[in-house]
Amino acid sequence: MRDRGEYLFTSESVSEGHPDKVADRISDTVLDCFLSQDPYSRVACETLVTTNRIVIAGEVRGPGSVTKDLLSHLARLAVHDIGYEQEGFHWQTAAVECHLHAQSAHIAMGVDAAGNKDEGAGDQGIMFGYACTETPELMPAPIFYAHLILRRISEMRRNKDPMVAGLLPDAKSQVTLRYIDGKPVGATSIVVSTQHVEKRDGKDLEQAEIKRMLWPIVESSLPKGWMCAGDEFYVNPTGKFVISGPDGDCGLTGQDHRGHLRRRLPAWRRRILGQGPDEG
Predict the structure, then answer these.
(1) What is the rounded distance in angstroms from the CA atom of residue 167 to the CA atom of residue 1?
(2) Residue 49: closest CA among 241, 223, 247, 225
(3) Which of 49, 152, 227, 273 falls between 20 and 30 A from 143, CA-CA?
(4) What 3-state DSSP class applies to 17?
(5) How far apart are CA 259 and CA 174, in angstroms?
(6) Greatest Cα pair distance in the chain
(7) Which pTM was predicted?
(8) 68-82 vs 19-37: helix axis angle to the nearest 10?
(9) What CA–CA distance (Å, rounded) separates 150 from 167?
């Protein structure tokens, strides 16, 4: 980050009910099941979720006690914990297909340590990240507060807090902070898109009402005085958000959600983070 002048930095977060996060959660559940029964298990699990369907596929090496029926059951429990009980995606009625099979012997040769050979991961990739002192958690402030907003909404939803009555699991937040001489000083705009019921107490749940519900949650999630102006707080800016989750958007394991960056970042950093030299 620059340590001189003024600039904006934007980061985005998605909730546990976002379709890609649902897929991640199910893949993690499969991995946890194998490792709990054999810590030397090998699991490469990909999950797809869409309208009332869950597809689990990949390669594994582990104990025979981990059956497809067990994994299908655990996948349903994961979806139940997230909170999906909707007509288009329901933990009880969704079709679950498990197509996991034994790991290729050729791949196993590359990932097993033998003699003085290093143990590999099977695939190659570059990870990039850094710690900073902008927050006590050592996370950059924009992504920290984007995560925090969704976490607080999720906790309130799970606790059936009437303040968020009508909100559903799928949500996304985006926080833009203004920096002066390398230090964040406040939010210039915030976006929260959240899935919701169509009607509450027999009446249409209007976007203006959802904005009123979310304002105090977002404001209290930020440091005092950091809340953006009311006309820069965008809630469901494209309109109502009823058909969503895996019913509205197919989800896949491993689809990352990087923060959107200003073009004023150095070109090398844009490329490392997956942006081309001309992308904003």
Answers:
(1) 36
(2) 247
(3) 49
(4) coil
(5) 8
(6) 69
(7) 0.81
(8) 130
(9) 12
